[in-house]
């Protein structure tokens, strides 16, 4: 970022910081769109951002002007005419440029820039050094110019096409040199001029060899070329007529180039055009609609489907049954309550609520809650799809597909995640209610009273059998106390056991509701982790891309 700011400071005017902001925004959009939008489109935008950032770090005092054209258009002659030096080789039989030649006015920073452009050292000429060797006057107005003579775009050599395409993307300004015979060739119009319409501010078109055209036809030919350029969307691009051989129009071309070089705005304009063009293409694919809220409208539906698949109703019923069983053992008549121990606890049958020691022994093991049936899994899929559709309803097709992929990306972990959520939830059944403890104490007191009555009556019976003197037996309301203890202990114990069932039912319902609430909270966490969070990540990426592209295109 610091190097970009330093590069921006090299630009003239207030546009430097703006270019930096837009490059950063495009780079942010690329990162957000990668893997979501078309790979080729994203790669092109990434290349633009990287190329623009690299150019911004290099010399801002130089303007790279590329001369491009077809075989025989006179590019090399124009290059020599502009430099005032015989640098570019001019073919005799079949004029062709086989490599890129460069000439730089002003050496500071030019070498690094030419290396970045990929121009070989042997083809790099520093105009100032050549003035020391040739009696050629310099042109101060071109100070800061880096002039490139590109290979012919219509060459039969594939490497030449690649070189032209590469440097056309890197040059700050493009000068298209056309000749009277091939100026209407669709190859240059369809492949280069029309696609570069967004870069019209950094383009010039030159009709060379104008001396070979009869004077009475020159105006009509220029008018025809103007018409073709307008059709390409290049209405504002200047059109000049030159003859590199005789020097006609070269001064005007040099002035036009010098004006751009002196203004030092071509680099900024070219970078802005590249970045904006790439952002527009990304924005078309990205869309600007507002994404829906993730899972909020269908949160209950989603949790219900997941809870059903996790067997929550089964577990909740087991909690109620287990509570009643444990309550019967704790509050029932002790004489018969021990028989409950022979029944299997529903929660233990499901490998739930095994206690601290049991959980240590079974750590990592699955519960015995049945896995989701096909119908339950279909309900989950339907709920997830409904949430994804709500979110992606207004999004562009690539983002909608990305959201839908994210919604099911982690669904392979569904069974394990649900089982872990159920197994790791504190169902709230381990704690024995205080009321059960009180009832249990009362029950044992009643058993003790009944036992005391049995012992007392037995002792009296033995004493009567042995005809020994019996002590006086106290009575209550005319009922002997031993008999009252025995009968009262048994009857009250049975009555208390029956009455406690009402309390047990209420307690079982309460614990079932608590278990259901806790289980659903755990299931909600699963839905967040498996469904909501992946979709929210996609929505956040979409919003990031939309905001970043809006920043570029503001």
How confident overall, as mean pLDDT? Answer: 83
Derived from helix and strand composition plus strand pairing, the structural class reads alpha/beta
Q: Which H/E pattern describes the elements? A: HHHEHEHEHEHEHEHEHHHHHHHHHHHEEH
Instruction: Catalogue the unreliable spans.
Output: 1-5, 91-95, 131-136, 354-364
Strand numbers in spatial order across the main sheet: 3-2-4-1-5-6-7
Taken as a percent bin, the fraction of beta residues is: 5-15%
Compute the number of strand runs: 9
Largest sheet: 7 strands, mixed
Distance between the termini: 21 Å
Tally the helices.
21
Written account of the structure:
By secondary structure, this protein is an alpha/beta fold. It is built from 21 helices and nine strands. A seven-stranded mixed sheet has the order 3-2-4-1-5-6-7, with helices on both faces. A hairpin with a 2-residue loop joins strand 8 and strand 9. Helix 1 crosses helix 3 (39-57) and helix 2 packs parallel to helix 11.
Helix and strand arrangement:
Layout: H1 2-9, H2 15-33, H3 39-57, E1 63-69, H4 75-83, E2 101-104, H5 110-117, E3 124-126, H6 127-133, E4 145-149, H7 158-170, E5 173-178, H8 186-193, E6 203-207, H9 215-231, E7 239-241, H10 250-263, H11 266-286, H12 299-309, H13 312-331, H14 334-337, H15 346-349, H16 355-361, H17 374-392, H18 397-408, H19 414-423, H20 434-465, E8 475-476, E9 479-480, H21 481-552
Parallel strand pairs: 1-4, 1-5, 2-3, 5-6, 6-7
Antiparallel strand pairs: 2-4, 8-9
Helix pairs in contact: 1-2, 1-3, 2-3, 2-11, 2-21, 3-11, 11-21, 12-17, 12-21, 13-21, 17-18, 18-21, 19-21, 20-21
């Amino acid at each position: 970022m610091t190097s970009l700011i330093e590069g921006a400071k090299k630009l003239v005017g207030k546009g430097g910081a703006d270019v930096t902001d837009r490059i950063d925004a495009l780079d942010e959009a690329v990162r957000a769109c990668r893997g979501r939008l078309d790979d080729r489109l994203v790669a092109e935008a990434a290349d633009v951002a990287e190329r623009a950032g690299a150019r911004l770090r290099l010399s801002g005092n130089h303007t790279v002007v590329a001369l491009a054209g077809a075989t025989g258009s006179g590019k090399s002659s124009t290059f020599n005419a502009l430099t005032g030096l015989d640098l570019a080789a001019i073919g005799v039989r079949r004029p062709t440029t086989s490599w890129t030649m460069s000439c730089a006015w002003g050496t500071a920073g030019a070498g690094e820039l030419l290396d970045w452009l990929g121009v070989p050292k042997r083809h790099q000429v520093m105009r100032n050094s050549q003035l020391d060797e040739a009696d050629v006057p310099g042109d101060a107005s071109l100070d800061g110019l880096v002039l490139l003579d590109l290979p012919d775009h219509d060459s039969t050599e594939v490497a030449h096409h690649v070189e032209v395409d590469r440097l056309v993307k890197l040059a700050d300004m493009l000068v298209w040199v056309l000749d009277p015979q091939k100026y209407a060739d669709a190859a240059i119009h369809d492949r280069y001029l029309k696609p570069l319409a967004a870069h019209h501010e950094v383009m010039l078109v030159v009709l060379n060899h104008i001396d070979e055209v009869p004077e009475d036809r020159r105006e009509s030919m220029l008018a025809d070329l103007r018409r073709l350029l307008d059709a390409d969307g290049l209405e504002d691009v200047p059109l000049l007529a030159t003859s590199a051989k005789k020097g006609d129009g070269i001064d005007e071309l040099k002035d036009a180039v010098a004006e751009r070089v002196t203004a030092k705005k071509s680099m900024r304009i070219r970078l802005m055009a590249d970045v904006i063009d790439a952002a527009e293409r990304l924005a078309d694919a990205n869309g600007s609609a507002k994404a829906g809220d993730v899972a909020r409208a269908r949160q209950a539906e989603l949790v219900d489907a997941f809870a059903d698949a996790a067997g929550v109703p089964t577990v909740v019923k087991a909690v109620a049954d287990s509570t009643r069983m444990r309550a019967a053992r704790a509050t029932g008549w002790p004489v018969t309550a021990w028989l409950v121990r022979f029944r299997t606890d529903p929660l233990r049958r499901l490998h739930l609520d095994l206690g601290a020691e049991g959980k240590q022994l079974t750590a990592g093991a699955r519960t015995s809650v049945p896995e989701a049936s096909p119908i339950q899994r279909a309900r989950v899929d339907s709920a997830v799809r409904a949430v994804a559709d709500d979110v992606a309803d207004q999004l562009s097709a690539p983002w909608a597909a990305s959201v839908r992929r994210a919604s099911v990306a982690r669904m392979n972990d569904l069974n394990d995640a649900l089982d872990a959520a159920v197994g790791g939830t504190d169902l709230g059944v381990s704690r024995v209610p205080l009321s059960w403890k009180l009832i249990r104490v009362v029950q044992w007191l009643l058993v003790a009273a009944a036992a005391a009555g049995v012992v007392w009556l037995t002792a009296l019976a033995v004493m009567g059998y042995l005809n020994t003197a019996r002590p006086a037996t106290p009575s209550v309301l005319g009922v002997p106390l031993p008999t009252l203890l025995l009968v009262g202990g048994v009857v009250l114990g049975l009555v208390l056991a029956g009455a406690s069932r009402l309390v047990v039912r209420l307690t079982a319902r309460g614990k079932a509701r608590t278990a259901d609430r806790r289980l659903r909270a755990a299931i909600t966490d699963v839905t967040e982790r498996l469904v909501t969070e992946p979709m929210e990540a996609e929505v956040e990426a979409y919003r990031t891309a939309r905001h970043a592209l809006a920043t570029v295109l503001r």
